[in-house]
Specification:
Length: 430
């Protein structure tokens, strides 16, 4: 995927000064990395101009070092390139999956069923791939494994009949229909999908595409959209292709929204698409500010944080325990890292900001606090309105939470003891 970019960013981070030469080198490296990930060349060139321009010409924001400023620009530009986060509403619906041979449709059908099952909606899988008898067995097995309802007819050649019967038979909240693939989007597939579409009238029609098709995802998304009117895309096999970045950017360009990405063969290898998450997963640059808050919280009760998932609720508690920047600085002095490694923006998280985060979180439902991945665009609009903030601020809060969560996820109990702080920092690459 974008793992080469991570190396380029690390190379830049390890330089002693972030001068023009270093920035130019970083931009050159990122250019090469993006082109290797099969991102459209014209976009790459636009992006590098923008990074160079902003990194070298813009005034340094207060409290940020040049290096941090440049990295922040890179993160933001990559996030922009990757488009909008997905809108995945957790509500009853019918979903039709389509795509070419081997794209990952059947596996994705199972993953999506499991995704809703975990969110308390009862899923059902219907096998409308009547081309191969093995398709029936494959989906049935998946349904059994995850505890989803299943409907299929092993010896039929009529997918429409199966879809009709499946809809009658299954009493579920989320009905997911797996369809047959073809080598290409030919007349035959067009017709079959349109007919299924008419019978099923699904709320969602997702095109499933593997990451390794890179930027041709754009053409594929456009032609499927023309043929059956897709309203979402799932990009699978992000774990096993270097071209996933290119595929995601291409979807964005085609106007298709990426709803999920598949990151492995297991049922829980599915993520709601979120560029902010994606970039921080990829580049994994820990935010030292959040780390310190984490350490501070550990002083109070490390066990609490480690019990289960680190939720937004934990994040809120953590926020509330940070009473001022002074405390943070004092704590810094006690850390076993050299003073010169401490970024200037360490006290960036002002009391004002903590206050506004708290208000935002107060506008969230319990469900959202427990599982922020369900916070879609419309939910974040509602939260912004309820808290008198903007969607941008809601996003910023969630981003901050995710960075902290990424870090917490890296800790293990052994190294949580205060004496092992050095270990912990090493683990985080500091
Ligand atoms: N590594 C990886 N493998 C995946 C992913 N999604 C699917 N696969 C694998 O890709 C292969 C094809 O997946 P299927 O789900 O059968 O694809 P399909 O689109 O239903 O294929 P047809 O029905 O033959 O058109 C299987 O071996 C899956 O395990 C993913 O996200 N990562
Ligand atoms: Mg299949």
């Amino acid at each position: 995927m974008f793992d080469k970019i991570k190396e380029s960013v690390q190379k830049f981070s390890s330089k002693s000064v972030a001068d023009e030469e270093a920035v130019n080198q970083l931009v050159k490296d990122i250019q090469r990395d993006l082109i290797r990930a099969d991102v459209d060349v014209s976009l790459v060139s636009e992006l590098s101009d923008e990074i160079r321009e902003e990194a070298l010409k813009e005034d340094l924001p207060k409290g940020l070092s040049r290096k941090e400023h440049v990295l922040e620009i890179v993160y933001n530009k990559l996030e922009e390139l990757l488009g909008e986060e997905a809108e995945v509403e957790i509500e009853p619906k019918t979903i039709l999956l389509c795509g070419l041979y081997g794209a990952g449709k059947t596996t994705t059908a199972g993953k999506i069923a499991d995704f809703y099952r975990k969110r308390e909606l009862k899923p059902g899988l219907v096998c409308a791939d009547t081309d191969r008898p093995a398709a029936y067995d494959q989906l049935k097995q998946i349904a059994e494994n995850i505890g989803a309802e299943f409907y299929g007819e092993k010896h039929t050649e009529d997918p429409l009949e199966v879809v009709r019967n499946g809809r009658e038979e299954l009493d579920v909240d989320v009905l997911i229909v797996d369809s047959a693939g073809r080598n290409s989007l030919n007349e035959n597939l067009r017709e079959e999908l349109s007919e299924i579409d008419e019978v099923l009238e699904p709320e969602d029609k997702y095109l499933v595409m593997p990451a390794d098709i890179g930027q041709s995802a754009r053409d594929q998304a456009e032609s499927f959209d023309e043929a059956v009117g897709i309203n979402g895309v799932v990009v699978t096999k992000m774990d096993s292709s270097a071209k996933g970045g290119g595929a995601l950017v291409a979807c964005q360009r085609s106007g298709a929204s990426v709803n999920f990405i598949g990151t492995g063969e297991q049922m829980d290898d599915l993520k709601v698409y979120d560029p902010v998450d994606f970039v921080s997963d990829m580049l994994g640059q820990p935010d030292l500010g959040s780390l310190l808050e984490k350490i501070e919280e550990m002083d109070t009760d490390p066990e609490d944080i480690l019990e289960g998932e680190f939720t937004l609720k934990d994040f809120q508690d953590q926020m509330e325990s940070v009473t001022g920047s002074g405390m943070m600085e004092e704590m810094m002095q006690q850390l076993p890292i050299g003073g010169n490694q401490i970024p200037d923006n360490i006290s960036n998280l002002t009391e004002e900001k903590i206050g506004s985060y708290s208000v935002i979180m107060d506008s969230m439902t319990n469900e959202e606090m427990k599982d922020p991945s369900i916070i879609s665009k419309s939910r974040s609009e509602r939260i912004a309105e309820g808290s008198g903030t903007t969607r941008g601020e809601v996003r910023e809060l969630i981003k901050h939470y995710r960075q902290t969560k990424n870090m917490v996820d890296k800790f293990d109990k052994g190294s949580m003891k205060r004496g092992n702080m050095q270990d912990m920092l090493q683990k985080l690459g500091m």
